[in-house]
């Protein structure tokens, strides 16, 4: 046999493996690349810095990241949150809000956790010297705001602003994480335009 399919693909020939790293916090993502049997690994291009040394383009050349209409094709997304105290903030999102865990990675100062957020993700990792401030907030749609308030209160989460109907027709309640990040918990009533698709 001895064909190309019997040999593992070569990544970064003669160099250590490339691991993605967040440029702001230095947090590493050690997820292995997805490799198709018999094909070289396809590594996506970092839009800010371009492909790193030794990275290969997908077979057939690089696909344009924009659709013919000019809209960016986003395959997945996540919010990156760098807390003042990683353990305290992870505990708030895991035990306080009760968010489901998508994955955990790293250890020590390089560890992080990614939570499910409906159609996206929240990654809590690294450290920041200053809180995110009032220019950053999370918007989380829930099915039943009154039930969510009861559940969070029972878990010891302080409600920063009680539920109320906003002028734009949504019901909102606010809580804050340990660094003061405001979290809008939102119920969309049946008659709201967001429900009409």
Describe this structure as you would to a colleague.
It contains two helices and ten strands, in the order E-E-E-H-E-E-E-E-H-E-E-E. The protein has a domain at about 80-195: Roll (2,3-Dihydroxybiphenyl 1,2-Dioxygenase, domain 1). It has helices at about 85-95, 145-155; strands at about 20, 30, 80, 100-105, 110-115, 120-125, 135-140, 160-165, 170-175, 180-185. It is globular, with a radius of gyration of 21 Å. The strands form three sheets. It has a four-stranded mixed beta sheet, with helices on one face. A four-stranded mixed beta sheet has the order 7-10-9-8, covered by helices on one side. Strand 1 and strand 2 form a beta hairpin. The protein is α+β, with helices and mostly antiparallel strands.
The level-1 CATH class of the domain at 78-196 = Alpha Beta
Strand order of the largest sheet: 3-6-5-4
CATH superfamily of the domain at 78-196: 2,3-Dihydroxybiphenyl 1,2-Dioxygenase, domain 1
Annotated CATH architecture of the domain at 78-196: Roll
Keywords:
four-stranded mixed β-sheet, single chain, 2,3-Dihydroxybiphenyl 1,2-Dioxygenase, domain 1, disordered N terminus, alpha+beta, globular, 197 residues
Condensed summary:
By secondary structure, the protein is of the alpha+beta class.
SSE map:
Blueprint: E1 20-21, E2 28-29, E3 78-81, H1 86-96, E4 101-105, E5 112-117, E6 120-125, E7 137-141, H2 145-154, E8 159-165, E9 171-176, E10 182-187
Parallel strand pairs: 3-6, 7-10
Antiparallel strand pairs: 1-2, 4-5, 5-6, 8-9, 9-10
